[in-house]
Amino acid sequence: MDEQTRLTYLTRxxxxxxxxxxxxxxxxxxxxxxxxxxxxxxxxxxxxxxGHVLNFFATISWVCLMGYFSWRAGQYYRRHFGSLESxxxxxxxxxxxxxxxLCCVALxxxxxxxxxxRGMLPYCVTLVWISPLFEAENPPLRRFYFALAGALVVxxxxxxxxxxxxxxxxxxxxxxxLLALGIADHMLLMSLCTPPREDVxx
Length: 202
What we know:
The protein is mainly alpha-helical. Helix content is 67%, strand content 0%.
């Protein structure tokens, strides 16, 4: 990637590549799903009134903690790589992608409304987050690991559905894969921004 292409790509995808920002959310979802699988058990407050109030405040506190971590992650990126005017996320313009997503959503709605089958929802979610695969502007490395992650989720979901295993495993796999993709995006950003500069605004 030449210097001009690198700078153009960073300008358009700078915030999108800040994968550490979303790590607390995926870790929380992963922890919640492991509890539903019986792997872990988190404390609960009981009582007609006090129990609900304490659970509510515990949830709010955890959400605030995740927000604080995300904000601190943003400060880290600003200190090490600077800040610039960029979109938070870039939507793909590939017609094949939007055709696949539209068909998948339509099929999912049909199965959900008329057949009561929710099995298509994980594939719709996967199509949403593998959108970088369909953007030619992305480096081949990023398109490769998104394709690999998408294939892993699709085939593991299909296997779980065919073998009638616990559907919570599907969400666990999704969370692990999305956490790994966030780390991969972070490492890609580091490689594109080297050498890092302190307190630089572009």
